[in-house]
Amino acid sequence: MNQVVQHSSTVDLAFAALADPTRRAVLERLGSGRATISELAEPFGMSLTGMKKHIRLLEEAELVTTEKVGRVRRCMLAPYAFEGISTWLQRLDRFAQVVERTKGDR
Predict the structure, then answer these.
(1) What are the chain's domains?
(2) pLDDT of 5 strictly over 70
(3) Alpha-carbon dihedral of residues 65, 10, 12, 36, nearest 10 degrees?
(4) CA 3 from centroid of its chain's CA atoms
């Protein structure tokens, strides 16, 4: 598979996952360290099933990883989770600079 297409797909999934405020809050929480699904669900008054769906989407976007320890599933930020997003945002920043430089060219 073409790496650009695969990279784009990963970035698309990441931005789709980040579109939800609950998932953004979960990522912020995981920035402080690992947490169980129960610990993540509690502040939202959310069912474990509901939080598992959010976590599954974050895993598919390669932003979060999980590990099962006994009956508990622990969640953590994925290594290099935001590398693709950061690269894309840097490209966007370069585009903004070009737009800014060419504003008076009309």
Answers:
(1) 3-105 (1.10.10.10)
(2) no
(3) 0
(4) 20
